[in-house]
Design brief:
The protein has two domains: 9-90, no CATH class; 97-165, no CATH class. The chain is built from two helices and twelve strands. The protein has helices at 78-91, 158-165, and strands spanning 9-14, 20-24, 29-32, 38-46, 57-60, 66-70, 97-103, 109-115, 118-124, 130-132, 138-141, 147-150. A hairpin with a 2-residue loop joins β8 and β9. The longest helix has 14 residues, at 78-91.
Length: 168
C-alpha cells in the first residue's frame, strides 16, 4: 500500500492510537494506520445508530473489514471528532421517496423522484442497488452512495408502484 500522504487531502484527523483519517477533495476518506499503511476509500459506521449516537463507531475497509474502533466520539481529539461527525451525518442522510416520477429503461437507471426534502434526480448503477426489505420498505443506493428510503411501497401512488415493480 502507498504510505505517502496524498497531496489532495483536504482535512485530516489523528487518533490517540496512532491512525489518522484523511478526507480528499473528491469526498472519500482514507485511513492511514499506525504502521503508515494507507487504506483507501474507507467507510465510517455507527455500531448502534439509534441507541448510542455518540459511539461506538467503526472505520471499515472497502472489503468490509474493520480497521479501527472508536468507543466514544467525545474522547477523540476535536479535529478527528469533527471529521467523523461530518462523515456520519453525510452517510446517515436518508431522504424518503414519496413519489417516483420516472425511471429510465436502461441500466444504469436514471431516477426522478420527489422526496421529503424536495425533488431529486439520481442514477442507480445496478438492479441490486434497489434492496427490498421483508417489512415492505425499499432502500435505493445511488452511484454516489446516497441511500434513499421508501418506508412502505404499498403507500406509494399507483404510478410510483408500477415504476418500482418494473425493476423487480
Amino acid at each position: 500500500m502507498n504510505t505517502h500522504a496524498n497531496p489532495l487531502a483536504t482535512i485530516t484527523g489523528d487518533s490517540p492510537e496512532g491512525w489518522r483519517l484523511e478526507r480528499h477533495a473528491h469526498g472519500r476518506l482514507d485511513l492511514i494506520d499506525a504502521e503508515g499503511r494507507r487504506h483507501a476509500d474507507v467507510d465510517v459506521l455507527r455500531a448502534f445508530p439509534v441507541t448510542a449516537s455518540a459511539g461506538p463507531v467503526a472505520v471499515v475497509a472497502a472489503d468490509g473489514g474493520e480497521l479501527a474502533w472508536v468507543e466514544s466520539l467525545a474522547a477523540l481529539p476535536a479535529a478527528l471528532k469533527a471529521l467523523l461527525d461530518r462523515e456520519l451525518a453525510q452517510r446517515e442522510f436518508l431522504p424518503v421517496i414519496e413519489r417516483i416520477e420516472t425511471v429510465s429503461d436502461t441500466e444504469p437507471t436514471e431516477w426522478a423522484v420527489h422526496t421529503d426534502r424536495g425533488p431529486h434526480r439520481f442514477t442507480v448503477a445496478h438492479a441490486d442497488d434497489v434492496a427490498r426489505q421483508p417489512d415492505g420498505s425499499v432502500f435505493i443506493t445511488d452511484t454516489f452512495g446516497t441511500r434513499y428510503r421508501i418506508p412502505r411501497v404499498a403507500a406509494l401512488d399507483s404510478h410510483s408502484r408500477r415504476l418500482l415493480e418494473t425493476l423487480a
